[in-house]
Specification:
There is one protein chain. The chain is mainly beta. It has a single domain (26-167), classed as Uncharacterised protein YcnI-like PF07987, DUF1775 (Immunoglobulin-like, Sandwich), CATH 2.60.40.2230. It has one helix spanning 2-23; strands at 27-30, 33-35, 39-46, 55-61, 67-71, 78-92, 95-111, 117-124, 130-133, 136-140, 144-147, 166-170. A five-stranded antiparallel β-sheet has the order 6-7-4-10-11, with no helix packed on it. A four-stranded antiparallel β-sheet has the order 1-3-8-5, with no helix packed on it. A three-stranded mixed β-sheet has the order 2-12-9, with no helix packed on it. β6 and β7 form a beta hairpin. It is globular, with a radius of gyration of 19 Å. It starts with a helix and ends in a 12-residue tail after the last strand.
Length: 182
């Protein structure tokens, strides 16, 4: 009986804590985890403007270990990409890729401070497990926010003012020969 009452007491507190932490989130990515070597749709949520000013541009800075980034067009926004020459080329569908998308920009739109919106891309996640920060720049009619801070042992995530969205990439789970089922 005590376990049930403790669970009933702790569950609402845990949910409230989760809601409060998400309410303070500014530029976030969903999902926040993925599997190594897979293609994944990542959606970045912009939850407010810059000190009340409307957002007019969103930039997603693609780390070099995330490959083949392709943006999803948004009605009312102009879309552009930039590429860089890779330090380490990779193979994709039998071709050697030596340049890849490094920046995706949606601009000439308007997202009032009172609303939120989402900006999506498709990527191929790294072949090795890692926690990857994906910086976002939010440019407003007045001001900008660089969501690029990364937690360290000396600077925990809760202390960051402008945290970069982060995705935790893990190896697939194998279930004793059950990973190859038709």
């Amino acid at each position: 009986m005590k376990t049930i009452s403790t669970t009933r007491t702790l569950l609402p507190l845990a949910l409230a804590s989760l809601i409060i932490s998400n309410a303070h989130a500014h530029a976030v990515v969903e999902p926040q985890n993925g599997t190594t070597g897979t293609y994944q749709k990542l959606t970045f949520r912009i939850t407010h403007g810059c000190d009340g000013s409307a957002t007019k541009e969103v930039q997603i800075h693609i780390p070099e270990n995330i490959h083949g980034a392709k943006p999803m067009p948004k009605p009312g926004w102009t879309l552009s990409t930039q590429t860089i020459k890779l330090t380490t080329p990779y193979k994709s569908h039998g071709k050697l890729i030596s340049e890849d998308t490094s920046l995706i920009v949606w601009n000439e739109g308007k997202l009032p401070n009172e609303y939120f919106d989402e900006f999506s891309i498709q990527v191929r996640l790294p072949d090795e497990a890692a926690t990857v920060a994906i910086p976002v720049t939010q440019i407003c009619e007045s001001g900008r926010i660089d969501w690029n801070e990364v937690a360290t042992p000396d600077k925990p995530a809760a202390s960051l003012k402008s945290p970069a969205p982060v995705i935790d990439i893990t190896a697939p789970m194998h279930m004793n020969g059950m990973d190859h089922i038709h």
